Amino acid sequence: MVSAQGSQEINYDSDRTLKNEERYPGALILSKVDNQVYFDHDGIEVWCDNAVFYKEANFFKAYGNIRMKQGDSVSMTSNYAEYNGNTEFAFASGNVSMKRPQTTLETDSLFFDRVKQQAYYRSGGKVTDTASVLTSKIGRYFMEEDKYSFINEVVVTNPEYTINSEQLDFYSETGHAYLYGPSTIKSETSTVYCERGFYDTRADNGYFIKNSQINYDNRILRGDSLYFNRENSFASATNNIRVIDTINDSRVTGHYAEVYRDKDSVFITKKAVAASLQERDTLFIHSDTIMITGKPEKRVIRGFYDVRIFKEDETGENPMSGRSDSIYSDQQTGLTKLINLNRDGGNRNPVLWSNENQMTGDSIHLMSNTKTEQLDSLLVFNNAFLIQKDSIEGYNQIKGKKLTGYFQDNELNEVIIDKNTETLHYMRNNDSELIGINKTLASSIRILFRDREIQDIYYYNQIDGKLTPEADFPPNARELKGFNWRGEERILNKEGLFEGQPEPELIKIKGIPLPDEPDEFFDKREKDDLLLNENSRLKPDILKNRNADSLRFKNEKVMDSLKPGTQQDSLRKDIQKLEKEKAVSRKKD
Fold it and tell me: 3-state SS of 406-442?
């Protein structure tokens, strides 16, 4: 055992020690007989089959079956390695494998700075974790943080998914990954996209910000912040969210949403709006909370608390709107129900406006043609009441137990009211002069519309009816019992869906900060102060930082010198030659 003086000098042990001043001036040639060559320097140990040791320079080159160990946490194997004891800087090449408790790094060439406790490759590398395999062209490992920083064509492969990213920081102890730049997480059932995100590769969940979205088979979820749990097939979104149904041409917006993929359900609140494209029209449903359930061909929309709907055609001339306590809409059957649940005993009877016609009742059903997606008919159950504002003054009114309406081109064309019907109608001539007010009782009534106005009224089993001049009709009798004109509630445009409602208070999104810019890996040094000794196989230009870090260590001048085994074979021949020379010398003696 030969021990150098001073803690900064390299200790070594070798079964065989030779010199060849002609080829290796100032160096010792060390080789294995029974035991491998051994080096020790301030906590790092190296074993190899052969080595060239420049003792004065405190530098060695190692060949064959190399093992390098630092404490109990880092071990590395390679075909070739160099180490400078003065700068504590190492280089390894040829089947390099560096193992940590949680990960294994494999690459063809690796730099290791013991002062910084950082390892670095730029010729492509692979890290195997307990759950995933990570590859990139460029990688840097920070030992004190137990963190890998990957850039350039980063790929994480897991049995359940694949991550592609421009840059990814990975903490091997926890399996946490931070994604920067355009990144995707793809699996058989979903694709996540973000430009900044966090993912727990072992628990299979994460959250994403900046242009983030989750694509399921038939839904796209977007928002300022997304949370994703693969095991539970669950995702949630916060602030400025959109859930797009790619099959049914519909979308839901709001500021908080939950999506359960396996249950085919969406829950959304905070200014929630469901918009469904129906041929050339769009139906908007707004309520405090919206739930969408069912397979694509059997979607059901439910809305709760202060439901508001609005529909207009492309001309904007045939608006329809309504309000109710809750709503149920089945896209398969085309049935939409406006319902009063009377949760607090108050009067929330649903109301529907078709052009100038207001209809109310205990519940209202709308039927759409599932092929054309146009309105077909409507039903108003119990306490049906139709009110139309007269063109000049007063209100035309029709009431009964049940109302049936029929649409043509999405416009109310005919209404039939059955059981205990009663009408109050302002009769006018062709010049719009008021003839009188007609109040009639009948068993049923049929009303026809033209140009959105009542054109004809037919009475069946009329019990009583009388046309009274306006002057003789008392003002206090011009409203039927139960009359309730709610014109101030009418929704005239999309913005009216939110009228009178406060803006929701949005949650402050917890961001994902960009990583700190690390110091350059290769320190700038004086010309004669080299990271690796002048006897290194590496050229000084290689030990420089590059903007693109595109060097693959497999090009022109470097390629041959880094081929595994090339210099080791040459060294072995030199050792064999020296052994023969020493044997001849002993015989002469």
Answer: EEECCEEEEEEEEEEEEEEEEEECCCCCEEEEEEEEE
H/E element, 546: none
Q: Tell me, what's the pLDDT at 248?
A: 72
Q: What's the number of domains the chain is made of?
A: 1
Q: Confirm if 121 and 135 have CB atoms less than 8 A apart.
A: no
For 356, the 3-state DSSP assignment is coil
State the Cα–Cα distance between residues 401 and 100, nearest whole angstrom: 79
In a domain, 491, yes or no: no
What is the four-CA torsion angle of 479, 480, 486, 491, rounded to 10 degrees? -110
How many beta carbons lie within 10 A of that of residue 418, not counting itself? 17
Please name which of 15, 45, 46 lies closest in space to residue 30, comparing C-alpha atoms. 15
Mind listing the pLDDT tens digit for each residue in 59-116?
999 999 999 999 888 899 999 999 999 989 999 999 999 998 888 999 999 999 999 9
Q: Is the separation of the CB atoms in 64 and 48 below 8 Å? A: yes
**pTM (whole model) above 0.70:** yes
Residue 545, amino acid: N
* Residue 65 within a domain: yes
Structural domain containing residue 530: 11-116+519-588
Q: Are 540 and 533 in contact, with CB atoms under 8 Å apart?
A: no
Q: What is the C-alpha to C-alpha distance for residues 140 and 113, in angstroms, rounded to an integer?
A: 11
Give me the half-sphere count of Cα atoms (radius 13 Å) on the Cβ side of residue 5. Answer: 1
Q: What distance in Å separates the CA atoms of residue 256 and residue 227, rounded to the nearest whole number? A: 11
Helix (H) / strand (E) element for 186: namely strand 176-186
pLDDT in tens, 20-45: 888 889 999 999 999 999 999 988 99
Q: Cite the beta strand spans of 71-124 per DSSP E.
A: 74-84, 89-99, 104-113, 118-121
Q: 279-301 pLDDT, tens per residue?
A: 566 788 999 999 988 887 788 89
* Pairwise CA distance, residues 74 & 121, whole Å: 16
Which of 263, 281, 274, 275 lies closest to 303 in space, CA to CA? 274
549: CATH: 2.60.450.10
Q: Assign 576 to helix, strand or coil.
A: helix
pLDDT of residue 47: 96
Cα separation values, 543 from 89, 120, 121, Å: 11, 11, 12
- Whether 19 is covered by a domain: the verdict is yes
Residue 166: inside a domain: no
- Report the alpha-carbon distance of residue 50 to residue 279 in Å, rounded: 79
Tokens representing residue 497 in the block: 């869906």
* Closest-CA residue to 266 (of 205, 218, 307, 309): 218
Q: How far is CA 568 from CA 30, 62, 80, 281, 571, in A?
A: 12, 9, 8, 77, 5
Residues of the chain with pLDDT under 70: 1-7, 278-281, 313-318, 341-348, 373, 524-529, 547-575, 577-579, 581-589
